[in-house]
Structures are given as structure tokens and as C-alpha cells.
Amino acid sequence: GQTNLKSPQDIQVYVVNTNFTLRWKYTGNDTNVTFSAEYRFEDFMTNGTEWKELPGCQKVTHLECDFSSAITEYYDKHHVRLRAERMEEVSPWSSIFEMTPYDIAQISAPGIELQSINGVIKIKVSPPEANQVRKMWIDDLSFKYNLVIWENSSNAELRNQSIFPTDIIDGLAPDTTYCLKVQATYPWEDKEGLFSPVHCVKTTRKANVLFCATNVSVLALNMKFHLHWNNRYKQHVSYNVQYLIGYLKKSYDDYSTKWRNVLECENITDTQCNFSSIITTASGIFYLRVQAMNEYNKSCLSNEVKVDPLVTNEIGPPGVKVDISDVLLHIQIYPPGGSESEVMSNHYDLSYRVLYWKNSSNNEEEIKMKEIKQTIGTISDLTPSTLYCVKVQAFSKAYNKSSHFSKEECIKTPGGRKSLGIVMPLGVKLLTLQEPLQVSQVKKYLQHGLMASQTYNKIKYVFFPSCQPPLTIEGFGGQLFDIPFLSTTEEPIENCSIIETIMTEELNQIDFKDYKHSKQSSRDSGNYSNDDDTSGSKVSEETLEKETV
């Protein structure tokens, strides 16, 4: 049992892809010492296996060994231990090193190929485990690549950028030697790989082709996308706008033949084109370029531009309509995009920033703001006989975007005098009279078509609203119901209701249960005048409408 051999110290396992190396330190002065390792692993079927000899790490004379062939389960927990040996004498086992291969594995350097042509450097990257049968990283398409490039000079500045497996490095000085290296990353696991060896290449001069499209840019508003470019050529030139679906650039295959023409932008002479038809999904990435052709059928390709639809697109101002009902200012917002506003609403979770103020000669009047998610809002605490103005801005917090403000809309609040509201028998919108009325005047309005001629004699009670009526009743949406008057056939007359409200600081609201009952009970009742003399009714309604506004 007793031995003078010391145990190995500082046991470490290094994993790069599926390559496993065991390293350690030995502080003894013994000669002719070798080292042997054992391992075991845990899986879901068993809590642990028996210790086994670690292949590649038996009777090793150096302080490291390669045991890549022994490990095939990369997600299971493994234990490794080591001891020193000399003839029949062995040291105690070292402390146990515990590892899960996938967790400690590093990503190896990718392979790269370079080509200097026409003032740019074309680069092709191969994945870290290219042509390997056993792989630690199953999905090569999940790799992303970081490029570091610099001029081969004493005071060079490093330039970092992300690149695709097949890409073009531009913006370089001509006839200049550049050096670069590439690193693979695995974003899902937050892993960064080893850099490739440094490669150096000299750039060439770019050919000056006058008919090439230059300064290619994208302008997008409310999901309408336009490509613009400049033309320096004085002779005839035509253009094709071409696009590539973004995911193809993540492929390691050659995608140069996958570019497609935008049908609406083929063989055009304008220096702009609407390519909205290709944006079939708002979550995808697209790349666009312009192919120019001169009168001799020679072609030239412009630089590419990237389009991430929801990021590239700008939000236009919303539409706004305002209305007044006694003590409330109603605001109706129409999402950006006009008749196609649904497109914007579907893609952005829009909110609205409402600014409102008293439009008076007092320059110190405070501008107030409300933020709302809905397209309908109300503002209370209004001053009678005052002109209020409103403008609205749409914004998206998720994309950190906001529109310009809408055009200002202004409306004057009514005076603070007694008002009378009348509910039509069939649910016709609420009319509000702002002038004091005598009973004889009420009868006059009722007699001229606002209600059946007998209705005013049947009024039984006056009720105060208990909830806010819909905006359509208040005049936002026009008529609440589109129901013609009933025929003039004599029928039993049932009760209708008349609302009389007094301007107060707090708005009373209609109880819709009572309203529904009134509407229902009136369905089969009421005689309506069809006399030719209807001028009084028309004047009264027009007057009421004007005064309400």
C-alpha cells in the first residue's frame, strides 16, 4: 500500500468541437513515471457507470493526452481521474474532474477563402466543423461570423463587421494590402469561437462604369416601399430592380443565381420604383440592387441595400376627427395608411399621443397631452364657448418609431346655457338644443316630424343618463340606425321619452337598458306626419345640427 509517488494536480479538460484533450501538472521528481486515466459518465438510464480506462490516456509519458475517440455522448455528465504509475507502484487517484462536454466545448476557427476583384474583397467562409462526421454543433446555419479587418500598416485601425458565409467587403482603398481574420459565434448558446489564422490580400482599382446606378436607397412610408437611385449617364440606360430573399444569404451555397427581378420594375427608365409587391411578409429580410443596361446591352450591378420591412418603414401621421357633446370633447383617430390603415394596425402595436389646447390669444395657454391605445378618446373639464384644437401622433414603442403629428383639428365648445336633448322614437341620433325653450317651442319641434304629433302629450317622466352614450349618438359616426319611418297607418301610440339635461360640472349618462326599452316599445307605434309642409322640420334640424357642432 504505501507509495512515494505523488498524485497529478490541476486536472483540466479542453474541448474544441469534438476534440478532447486532458492536461495536468506533476510536481514529483520521480523518473520513469507514466500516467493513466479513468472515466465514467452519467446518463438518464443509470445514475452512473463503473470506472473504465480512458482510451488514449494509458501509460502516457507527457502531461497531456487526447481522448477524443472515447467521448460520444456530448450532453451527459462525465467524471475523469488520473494517477501516476512506475512499474508496480501507483499514486493515489487525483481529484475528480467533472464536465459536460457540450457546456465546456469551444468553437474552432472557420475556414476562409479570399478573392480581390474590382476594388472589393469577396470572402467565402466554411463552417467550423466542415466535412466532419462527428459534430458538436449540429446546425451550421446557426453560426454567425465576425470579421476583423485592417490595413497592413503600422498605425492601422481595426474594423469589425458581421458577414455572411458568402459576402463582399467593400469601402476599401484601392491598391492597398488588407489583413483579416474571422470568428464564428453561436448566438443561441452565447458562445464565441476561435479566430481563423490571419490572411492578407491586396485590393484592385474599381472600374468606373458611368451607367451604373449609384446612391441606391429605400424610402418607405405606411408599408409602401420605393427604391431610389442616381443616374450619371447621359445616354440611354434602362434598369431592372432585383431582389433576394434574406435567408438565402445564410446559406453556404452560391446564391448568385437566386436574384429575381421585381416585375413592376423591369426594363424601366425612371430612377425610382415601387417594390411593395415583393414584401409578402413583414418579418423577413430582403436585399435589393439595381441592374443598369446601356445601349450596347452591357450591364452593371449597383451596391445592395438591406430592407427589414418593419424597421425600414416609417409611420405616417394618423387621421383625426373631433366633435363636441356638452362637456366632452370626442376624438376619433384613424390609423396611419388611409384606406389601407389595417396594414399598419396589423404590423405595429400602435399607441397615440394626443395634444390639445385652447386656441386663444393667450400665448401662455398650456398644451396638454394624453397617451392612449384606443382610436377613440374623450377629454373632459372643458371651458364653455372656447375653441379647442387637437393634433395626434402615432408611435410604436417596440420599434422606437413615431409619426409626424396630424393636421390640427379645432372645434368650439357650446355656451354654458340650458340644453335639451331629444331622443327620436326609432333611435335617431340625439339632438341637443343650446337655447332656452318654452313648452310651445318643444311642441313645435315635435309637431314638425321630430316625433309623432301626439308624443309630447304622452311624456310621463324625465330621466338622467347613467352611462356615456356611444359616439355615434353624439354625432361622431352619423346616424346610429338607418331605419325608415314607419307607415302612416293608425296604430296605438306608446310612450316615448324626452331627455332634459342641465349643463353641470359632471356629465350624467344614459342608461342603455331604458334606451333599449324605449326603442323596442316604439317599434310598432307612432304616427308620423307625411304632410307636404315639412320646411319647419328641416329648418329645425339644420339649426340643431349647427348649434350642436
TrEMBL record:
<dbReference type="GO" id="GO:0004905">
    <property type="term" value="F:type I interferon receptor activity"/>
</dbReference>
<dbReference type="Pfam" id="PF09294">
    <property type="entry name" value="Interfer-bind"/>
</dbReference>
<dbReference type="InterPro" id="IPR003961">
    <property type="entry name" value="FN3_dom"/>
</dbReference>
<protein>
    <submittedName>
        <fullName>INAR1 protein</fullName>
    </submittedName>
</protein>
<dbReference type="InterPro" id="IPR013783">
    <property type="entry name" value="Ig-like_fold"/>
</dbReference>
<feature type="region of interest" description="Disordered">
    <location>
        <begin position="515"/>
        <end position="549"/>
    </location>
</feature>
<feature type="compositionally biased region" description="Basic and acidic residues">
    <location>
        <begin position="539"/>
        <end position="549"/>
    </location>
</feature>
<feature type="domain" description="Fibronectin type-III">
    <location>
        <begin position="314"/>
        <end position="416"/>
    </location>
</feature>
<dbReference type="InterPro" id="IPR015373">
    <property type="entry name" value="Interferon/interleukin_rcp_dom"/>
</dbReference>
<dbReference type="InterPro" id="IPR050650">
    <property type="entry name" value="Type-II_Cytokine-TF_Rcpt"/>
</dbReference>
<feature type="domain" description="Fibronectin type-III">
    <location>
        <begin position="7"/>
        <end position="104"/>
    </location>
</feature>
<dbReference type="InterPro" id="IPR036116">
    <property type="entry name" value="FN3_sf"/>
</dbReference>
<dbReference type="GO" id="GO:0005886">
    <property type="term" value="C:plasma membrane"/>
</dbReference>
<dbReference type="Pfam" id="PF01108">
    <property type="entry name" value="Tissue_fac"/>
</dbReference>
